[in-house]
Design brief:
By secondary structure, the chain is mainly alpha-helical. It has one helix and no strands. The protein has one domain.
Length: 70
């Protein structure tokens, strides 16, 4: 085996191990149960938005374009 192959194998195994640890710790934290937190509810006043649509320009050429095949 060359040095590149060994490095690639070590890197792959390290990434797999790291992913397994991350997945395991995430799964374990979900089984611990959610923490109860106080929830604050805020009611905002109704907002009415009035606006006018700005004129737009079409950015597409409507004339036929000759296609060349090379």
């Amino acid at each position: 085996m060359t040095t590149e192959n060994i490095f690639s194998a070590v890197l792959t195994l390290s990434l797999l191990a790291g992913g397994a640890v991350a997945f395991g710790s995430d799964a374990a934290s979900k089984h611990a149960g959610p923490a109860k937190a106080e929830t604050t509810v805020v009611t905002l006043p109704t907002v009415t938005v009035v606006g006018r649509r700005a004129p737009t320009e079409v950015a597409v050429e409507t004339e036929t374009v000759e296609h060349r095949v090379q």
